[in-house]
């Protein structure tokens, strides 16, 4: 009996710590959503109140009237879509080569590839900007998705996964007369679904949330990604908190909803990678 | 030399028919080498030599096929990655030795940009902010991350709520976080000052106060970033074999002793990993500064990468910006390798 009470009190001690902290972490997001439905008159009221007197959709109405937010969301969706498809194809091909195939220069190439993970992207922004200029990517969505076509981390992740697969199935496929490509597409790739899901989430988070590349390369408002649109919108409407928070909600909602639906997958992805570089 | 040319001709001749050659490779693998079918399948072998040399050619062809197949898998990803990292990294070094505004022709000035850094007070203050931030932030995130992981690694009520609440900021972008922070820490209408007002505490300047701004940015960064270390620590905690803890308990270890002698040592490798990762990412903190303060007020929150961005894209001083970027890269590399060397000397296997 006393042991039971002991366990309960110990558990509740954790609650005393975890409950306030969790609420504290949720509070800003909660306020973001609430403020997007609160009239500016209520936001600017003195003394302020956390709970608004009435809910208004006017922030969203103004937002979609003042800025091409739909276009920005679509641009971001295009960028993330291309990035994910390209990541899945190129990283699994590359990962398979470095895991299973033997060819000349394999070790050197792989070591170089992994070493590039050490190079911080921010260090590359100046030359990359000029590369984009020469490639004609300035003011195109290409500037936003080209840096996310593939990644050394993705190749590394897929390689580790393929190394963990037993070789028997592939050998059986060869005996049945499949080429290397046949073995890869018909046998290996269907088995790689869990790793591909991780890679897709990883790419979605990185490409959707990226600000750096659009920031240096895109000036045309019709080519903005939602992140770039967000900070430009802040510059233009910095006093209209309701509208700004509405914009924030729109930009953040897809990933938060995705996180709530597939939390396990998101957390697993994050545990394998450092996401916020 | 002649040999080499022959091989490359051979490669070219077969380049158009990779699939056919694959078929040849499969049959060559399936049948014992030296039979005629290998060369009969594509008819190339006959063009180069009489029958006596065939076994050798088959082996070589198999190697060529293997190389082509391997590279056709590996080349797209490899070339894109190297093109977007190694190539610009080399170029950045060349730019860092130039005086260049991006429009008029660049002028070679040797190491002048690097010398300029030593005398630049703005640069020095950016370095100070960044270093101070790193030194204060990384230990906090390690301790808090480990503690929270310990707290979350148990089956209690509401545990999935706690996890969701603490992890969700990780998917919020830097831009959205920055704008949200501007609202929460707004001097007049922000939540933070409202809470202080309700508690009858003095109002604060937060992001507008030179002495508070870096602390506030650190707090915001902690909000977005803490989950990463918690998640990594949680994964590591779940890898600790329960036998070890069981054994410690049998030997009469109390909770603190279990933590100190079983859990803490097995978390050491992960701590090195998280520590290095956090150090690298904090040294490069940029987007949050851009979306909250633009380095202000009066440069009080200018970090090194923001300094680079400002020099290059606001002031068109691409050479100087590249020199600073390269210096940061060098410093990051030295610090990272130093941490790894330290870990190895302390007998911690980090990776």
Write the layout of secondary structure elements.
The complex is a heterodimer of chains A (277) and B (351).
Chain A: H1 2-36, H2 40-43, H3 58-66, H4 69-100, H5 106-115, H6 125-135, H7 142-145, H8 152-164, H9 168-175, H10 180-191, H11 193-209, H12 212-217, H13 226-236, H14 241-261, H15 263-272
Chain B: H1 2-15, H2 18-30, H3 37-42, H4 45-48, H5 54-84, H6 86-96, E1 98-99, E2 107-108, H7 112-119, H8 121-152, H9 159-167, H10 174-184, H11 191-198, H12 213-239, H13 242-250, H14 255-283, H15 287-292, H16 304-314, H17 318-345
Helix pairs in contact in B: 2-5, 5-6, 6-17, 7-17, 8-12, 8-14, 12-14, 13-14, 14-17, 16-17
Concise description?
With 277 residues, chain A is mostly helical.
Description:
The complex is a heterodimer of chains A (277) and B (351). Chain A is mostly helical and 277 residues long. Chain A has a single domain (68-272), classed as MetI-like fold, CATH 1.10.3720.10. Helices cover 73% and strands 0% of the residues of chain A. Chain A is built from 15 helices and no strands. In chain A, helix 3 (58-66) crosses helix 14 and helix 13 (226-236) runs antiparallel to helix 14. Chain B is mainly alpha-helical and 351 residues long. Chain B has 2 domains: 2-84, no CATH class; 112-345, MetI-like (MetI-like fold), CATH 1.10.3720. Chain B has helices spanning 2-15, 18-30, 37-42, 45-48, 54-84, 86-96, 112-119, 121-152, 159-167, 174-184, 191-198, 213-239, 242-250, 255-283, 287-292, 304-314, 318-345, and strands spanning 98-99, 107-108. Chain B has a two-stranded antiparallel sheet. In chain B, a hairpin with a 7-residue loop joins strand 1 and strand 2 (107-108). In chain B, helix 8 (121-152) runs parallel beside helix 12. Chain B starts with a helix and ends in a 6-residue tail after the last helix. The model of chain B is unreliable at 1-52 (pLDDT under 50). The interface between A and B is large, with 99 and 97 residues.
């Amino acid at each position: 009996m006393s042991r039971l009470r002991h366990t309960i009190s110990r558990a509740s001690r954790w609650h005393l710590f975890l409950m306030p902290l969790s609420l504290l972490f949720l509070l800003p997001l909660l306020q973001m959503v609430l403020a997007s439905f609160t009239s500016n008159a209520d936001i600017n009221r003195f003394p302020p109140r956390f709970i608004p007197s009435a809910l208004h959709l006017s922030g969203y109405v103004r937002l979609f009237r003042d800025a091409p937010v739909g276009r920005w969301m679509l641009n971001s969706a295009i960028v993330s879509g291309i990035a994910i498809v390209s990541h899945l194809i190129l990283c699994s091909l590359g990962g398979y080569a470095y895991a299973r195939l033997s060819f000349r220069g394999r070790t050197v190439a792989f070591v170089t590839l992994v070493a590039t993970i050490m190079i911080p992207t921010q260090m590359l922004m100046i030359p990359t900007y000029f590369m984009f200029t020469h490639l004609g990517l300035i003011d195109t969505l290409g500037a936003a998705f080209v840096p996310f076509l593939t990644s050394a981390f993705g190749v590394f992740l897929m390689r580790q996964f393929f190394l963990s697969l037993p070789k028997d199935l592939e050998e059986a496929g060869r005996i049945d007369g499949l080429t290397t490509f046949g073995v890869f597409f018909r046998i290996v790739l269907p088995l790689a679904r869990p790793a591909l899901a991780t890679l897709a989430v990883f790419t979605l988070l990185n490409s959707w949330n990226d600000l750096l590349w659009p920031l240096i390369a895109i000036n045309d408002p019709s080519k903005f990604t939602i992140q770039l649109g967000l900070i430009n919108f802040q510059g233009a409407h910095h006093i209209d908190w309701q509208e700004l928070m509405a914009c924030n909600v729109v930009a953040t909602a897809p990933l938060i909803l995705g996180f709530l639906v597939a939390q396990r997958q998101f957390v697993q992805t994050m545990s394998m990678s450092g996401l916020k570089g | 030399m002649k040999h080499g040319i022959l091989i490359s001709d051979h490669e070219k001749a077969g380049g158009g028919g990779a699939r056919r050659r694959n078929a040849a490779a499969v049959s060559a693998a399936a049948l014992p080498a030296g039979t005629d079918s290998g060369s009969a399948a594509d008819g190339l072998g006959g063009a180069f030599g009489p029958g006596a040399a065939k076994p050798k050619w088959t082996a070589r062809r198999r190697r060529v096929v293997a190389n082509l197949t391997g590279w056709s898998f590996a080349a797209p990803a490899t070339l894109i990655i190297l093109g977007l990292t190694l190539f610009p990294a080399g170029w950045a070094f060349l730019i860092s030795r130039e005086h260049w505004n991006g429009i008029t022709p660049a002028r070679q000035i040797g190491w002048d940009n690097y010398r300029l850094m030593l005398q630049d007070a703005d640069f020095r203050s950016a370095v100070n902010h960044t270093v101070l931030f790193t030194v204060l932030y990384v230990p906090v995130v390690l301790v808090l991350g480990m503690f929270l992981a310990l707290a979350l690694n148990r089956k209690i009520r509401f545990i999935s709520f706690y996890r969701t609440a603490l992890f969700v900021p990780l998917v919020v972008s830097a831009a959205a976080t920055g704008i949200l922070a501007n609202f929460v820490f707004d001097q007049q209408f922000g939540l933070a000052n409202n809470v202080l007002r309700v508690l009858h505490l003095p109002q604060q300047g937060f992001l507008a106060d030179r002495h508070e701004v870096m602390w506030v940015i650190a707090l915001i960064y902690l909000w977005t970033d803490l989950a990463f270390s918690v998640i990594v620590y949680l994964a590591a905690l779940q890898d600790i074999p329960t036998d070890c803890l069981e054994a410690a308990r049998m030997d009469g270890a109390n909770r603190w002793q279990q933590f100190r002698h079983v859990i803490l040592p097995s978390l050491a490798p992960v701590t090195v990993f998280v520590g290095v990762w956090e150090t690298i990412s904090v040294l490069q903190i940029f987007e949050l500064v851009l979306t909250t303060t633009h380095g202000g007020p009066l440069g009080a929150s200018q970090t090194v990468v923001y300094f680079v961005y400002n020099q290059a894209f606001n002031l068109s001083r691409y050479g100087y910006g590249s020199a600073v970027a390269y210096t940061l890269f060098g410093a990051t590399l030295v610090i990272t390798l130093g941490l790894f060397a330290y870990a190895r000397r302390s007998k911690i296997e980090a990776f």
